[in-house]
Design brief:
The complex is a heterodimer of chains A (336) and B (307). Chain A is mainly alpha-helical. Chain A has helices at 3-15, 17-36, 43-60, 65-87, 92-110, 116-119, 130-134, 157-181, 184-194, 196-201, 206-232, 242-255, 262-286, 300-318, 327-335, and strands at 125-126, 143-148, 151-156, 234-235. Chain A has 15 helices and 4 strands. Chain B has a single domain (3-16, 39-292), classed as P-loop containing nucleotide triphosphate hydrolases (Rossmann fold). Classes of the chains: A mainly alpha (336), B alpha/beta (307). The interface between A and B is large, with 34 and 45 residues.
Chain lengths: 336, 307
């Protein structure tokens, strides 16, 4: 068993690009679900809007990357408006239905082969964000970082640049969230989550606040999608399907809904758990510690999800408020 | 904070000291408001703040509310009573903008408000509470209170990002919230989750929160329902204090003792229409009211017994 490899891979998964993308998306979902009570099940739609917004504008229309990023943000903004207009006056579950459907529609449209010249069809769009690595002050092939005992934290300059930008985005997002939710604006969102009519009776324009929340949370998802696309220098339509949303929601719940740092800690733990179990099983199978009659290398991928699922169930049983949540709040839910 | 906010803060602060005395004589400024007002449905008041004209609401084939004409006196406590299913709460929802009438109009201080959204009504000075208390469980009592303040610049999303813009207003809002909480004897609970309060405390909090909006009219939907008798007395005191501050109070209630105790005027509804109006002392003797509560058959029953 290569324990150094298991440890290093586990820690690296928790802090590298994939975790960052999910954390950014989960921050947006936390604003929706955790603070406003908006059932957004289509966060991946906002990601796709951002990713394809920047991808199509830079690749198909040859615009500079900076302009592409602005267009990506605009796409996320417009998607939020489009989704919110008809649904935010209705009960929250309607928003859930519409968002999940809209995200799927978006994915199926961009992967449509007849639109190949525009959105890349099933192949997606590749090689549109070369300038992102061109801005990298580090040498993209050289290795940076350090090793602490068995833990190897060496990254190529290219990876480190992406990780650095990614964590900067997370930090900025957390800062914005912290300001927003601890303001009178955030207080109105929380009151809408608790009881819409009470907020309405207090003179608050519920529709306006819900729309603002949908847009702001959606934009965090849009940024996540753009970071995903630019860091990979590629947009693949099938990366933007439903499981992404539910993993992001899981991360937000794991960390504790309605907590500013929840999605960050939740994301790191989720990915470390997933990768740790995977690497452990892989090594176990490779070294015949786990007999072939139980699983082989191919099944590791499925078994890790079963085990993570079990772990999440245990969390919901023993700590329903998530890692950062306040148990008293759960008690209030029971009283109601 | 505008000059009018300051003035309001001052007036509520003034009432704070005396509030410790429960159920004291707030005086009744509305005592003579109804002198010479006819005790018939639809009678004209000396200074109406709310007027409903031909307000109707149908649910399928059922006419839940059909109020021909009703005036609510400014500065008085008006009770809306009636048997179950009389349409009191529906009428209440129509007055407060939470439901739209199928016909007719409602005016508030002379302006038609029939199709005005409820949050705009709150801004104009009409606030309501709910039969099933709506406190914001996972917010603290103080946060619940602060929500009620109007025109908060920090409620703009962009300004929310820059705390210096709203810091001073937030402090003023908090100070005002503490003054009102003190009047309602709830300061010691300010940091508790509202969801952890008892039923009666929630009713108190909802009333106190309504006061944060600086209302001109406050509408209470069954404020005493499910509240223990001791707390009922204190709630009644608070309602009288609202009147002493010049606020018009309209409330729906089942408990006749409560109604008799604090109402200046009683409106009786049955089957969607206003069947009687009058002073609390006399309305109980009105045959229409007895009919509404006991059913019309009581006369024929007694008649039958006599024969």
């Amino acid at each position: 068993m290569n324990w150094s490899l298991i440890l290093s891979n586990t820690v690296r998964s928790g802090i590298t690009q994939t975790a960052i993308i999910y954390i950014l998306a989960a921050i947006g979902m936390n604003l929706h679900v955790g603070y406003t009570g908006l059932m957004n099940f289509g966060q991946v739609g906002f990601m796709a809007a951002g990713a394809y917004g920047v991808g199509i504008s830079t690749y198909t229309y040859d615009l500079p990357l900076g302009v592409g990023i602005l267009i990506g943000l605009l796409c996320g903004f417009l998607l939020a408006l489009l989704l919110g207009m008809p649904t935010l006056r209705l009960r929250s579950d309607y928003l859930g239905i519409v968002t999940i459907a809209a995200a799927e529609i978006l994915r199926l449209v961009v992967r449509y082969q007849k639109l190949k010249d525009w959105s890349g069809g099933t192949n997606g769009i590749n090689g549109f964000a070369d300038s992102f690595q061109a801005w990298n002050p580090l040498s993209s092939s050289a290795k940076y970082g350090f090793e602490i005992g068995p833990l190897n934290l060496r990254f190529t300059g290219g990876d480190l640049w992406e990780i650095g930008i990614g964590w900067s985005l997370v930090l900025i997002s957390v800062l914005i969230m912290w300001r927003l939710v601890n303001s009178p604006w955030g207080r109105v969102l929380k009151s809408i989550r608790e009881d819409e009519n009470a907020a309405r009776a207090m003179g608050k324009n519920i529709f306006r606040f819900k729309m603002q929340s949908l847009i702001a949370g959606g934009l965090f998802g849009t940024v996540a999608g753009m970071f995903f696309a630019i860091a990979n220098n590629s947009v693949q339509p099938d990366n933007y399907s439903r499981p992404f949303t539910f993993f992001a929601l899981t991360i937000a719940i794991l960390g504790g809904l309605g907590r500013v740092w929840g999605p960050v800690i939740g994301g790191v733990i989720f990915w470390m758990l997933l990768s740790g179990i995977e690497n452990l099983l892989k090594e176990g199978v490779a070294n015949d510690k786990i007999p072939q009659s139980i699983m082989d290398g191919v099944q590791v991928g499925q078994v890790r999800f079963m085990l993570v699922g079990l772990g999440l169930m245990a969390l919901m049983v023993f700590r329903p408020q998530g890692i950062f949540g306040d148990k008293r709040e759960i008690a209030i839910d029971v009283r109601k | 904070m505008s000059a009018s906010d300051e003035a309001n803060l001052g007036s509520t602060a003034g009432g704070g000291g005396a509030s410790k005395v429960r159920d004291t004589d707030w005086g009744n400024p509305a005592e003579h408001f109804f002198d010479g007002v006819a005790e018939v449905p639809g009678s004209a008041k000396t200074d109406p703040v709310l007027i409903a004209r031909g307000v109707q609401r149908h649910f399928g084939g059922l006419t839940a509310v059909d109020v021909d004409h009703l005036e609510i006196q400014k500065g008085a406590i008006t009770a809306l009573i009636g048997p179950n299913g009389a349409g009191k709460t529906t009428f209440f929802n129509l007055l407060s903008g939470f439901d739209r009438p199928d016909g007719g109009e409602v005016t508030f201080q002379g302006d038609t408000i029939t199709n005005v959204a409820p949050h705009l009504l709150a801004k104009r000075g009409m606030v309501r509470t709910f039969q099933l208390t709506k406190v914001l469980g996972k917010l603290s009592v103080l946060e619940n209170m602060k929500l009620g303040a109007q025109l908060q610049s920090g409620e703009s999303m962009m300004k929310a990002l820059l705390k210096p813009i709203w810091r001073n207003q937030e402090k003023a809002v908090e100070a005002k919230a503490l003054v009102i909480l003190d009047e309602f004897n709830m300061v010691h609970m300010k940091d508790e989750f509202a969801g952890a309060l008892s039923g009666g405390q929630r009713k108190l909090l909802e009333m106190a929160r309504s006061m944060m909006t600086d209302p001109k009219v406050i509408m209470l939907d069954e404020p005493m329902a499910g509240v223990n008798p001791a707390l009922t007395q204190s709630l009644l005191g608070h309602v009288k204090r609202m009147r002493s501050q010049g606020i018009s109070v309209v409330f729906v209630e089942h408990d006749m003792d409560v109604v008799r105790d604090i109402s200046d005027w009683v409106v009786v509804m049955a089957e969607g229409i206003v069947v009687a109006e009058g002073r609390a002392s006399s309305v109980g003797a009105n045959p229409a009211v007895i009919d509404a509560y006991l059913g019309t058959s009581h006369t024929s029953l007694t008649d039958g017994g006599d024969q």
